[in-house]
């Protein structure tokens, strides 16, 4: 760096500051023979290689043999738990509404989830996982399954109208939401089944079959108020099956935390009680895998679809006041919540009403934004689908869109669906198993931080109640599909195309 270069004698004085050392003149190397210069370079290179070999040997001597074996545990590799042979297995668990913010009162930093924190301490966790927009349950669960943005997989809200088919998608109506034509992209269970793997789906939001006619090997449809004890029993029943019948990919979904957050708000006693309830499931699941000696065979990944923000005392924005009586009557279909996707009647002057809303947004920029597919923020990846309404009103957190007729009737005390850059919308990622143990090694081996702290020393880069939890940087949930493919040993050439980042997980393998 210019201005900071020191001569050899200056370096000596700096290193030996405080020591009286006689000045030593430097030999004149300007006339050294080419042969001598080349010999010097070769000697330095040899020393560097030797030092690298010594450090590598030292590094690998520190790594337990079981972790070295995990580096080579592929999807079809057989490994014994002491009594039976197992193939590498992935258990993906979604806890709906488990938010992961850097703010105070973050769900995992309330002292209510000691077992989930302990699992993340033994494994790894991310600072956050960023959901796709809109930050709703069905769009994000299908993103987790396919690795696609909302505009690519077609589930653009929990409820929406499709102008091309003149039909509506309702997330809570099986006759509607199980129709395969809604669900674009290839879910991970379909890819795994194509690769010859057995799969199991325990209530994960999505269809029973895709457009291609594919379905999971084992499928348990959605049912409300099913206890986590019952779900754990089903997971263990699958894990205890004979090798020829045992699934290698198990998907599980739990909605109770999201339901508590909506009903009572993210800071409520009910949410805290549900956090303890979910943490008990994490404890029982982990203990069951330990009892079966499967913690180095089964990768357990806990995720969520979105976070939750407090809407117990929001400011109401009345869309019918903004549009006027005739303008609101001209709205033929209304999509989404808390955003409003507006489809105007073909006979209405839609461009006029768009101008009215744009002007209102300029005058109330702290409250909401108004977009069309052409002006939608690129980071939303929410423009290139015919299912996206031609006008979208997106509220800021702290505000709720409504009408004079609806007011605050039925308004929940907690909500999501807001801008996916808002930290209260952040989701969680916690992993434990052969992936997490080897990811620490592989990441630290390639990172300059390894030389400073080693792979098993406390992470000082980010606050957590668990100080020695290994924390990776935040990332988008479109990356999860490719992670599962890697863990199952499915080559990239056999996986579906996604919106994930090519090579994103390579540093961890």
TrEMBL record:
Pfam families: Phosphodiest. It comes from the Eukaryota. The keyword Heme does not apply. Gene3D superfamilies: Alkaline Phosphatase, subunit A. The chain crosses the membrane at residues 42-61. Residues 1-35 are annotated as: Disordered. The keyword Transmembrane applies. Keywords: Membrane, Transmembrane, Transmembrane helix. Residues 18-35 have a biased composition (Polar residues). One of its GO terms (molecular function) is ribonucleoside triphosphate phosphatase activity. One of its GO terms (biological process) is nucleoside triphosphate metabolic process. This is Phosphodiest-domain-containing protein. It comes from Lactarius akahatsu.
